[in-house]
# Entry
Amino acid sequence: MGNKKQYKIFFSEEQRLSDSPKKWIFPVIFLLSVGTLGYGLIQQIVLGKPWGDNPMPNLGLILTFAFVVVLMTVIWILLHRTKLVVYIDKEGIHYRFPIFIRHEKFIPKEQIVSYDVRKYRPLSEYGGWGYRTRFIYINRGVAYNIMGNIGLQLYLTDGKKLLIGTQRPEAMKRAMKKLINESEQSDD
# Structure
């Protein structure tokens, strides 16, 4: 970040997937998949009863179980570390979505044609939560969201649209008004 100027921050928010009500979905999937394979492992190797109609060799079952445990654990850790970081200062909007966006992205206020803090439908408009681009060939732009159904909709000078989810819509509205008003005042 070197010589980057620090300005007063109008708005700051960090949303974590671990704070979302959806955080329980993956552990359930983890337990079901690992539990099912674990049951098969015990059934076939410990009790000596072949597991399934066409049982896998013991070594194959052990390797499959180990692979699934490692894969699911890595995915669980990545999901647990997922967060959306957004802040707005007098220069524009800064955001980061580690795993998907490693380095901070920046939208200068000059690139913002208009904005709206709005309610949206994550599933039907973007196909869910997370880093979303296109959903069923409907180009609604890019969305970054962790939870909820309220976000900052940006319309940019290059014609692109971007939605950034928020849990603090009123604070975000105030920050955007400050950002836009500062740019209008500096034009005078």
About this structure: The beta strands are 9-16, 83-89, 92-97, 101-108, 112-119, 130-132, 142-145, 150-156, 161-165. The longest helix spans residues 58-81. Helices lie at 25-46, 58-81, 122-126, 169-187. The chain has a mean pLDDT of 86.
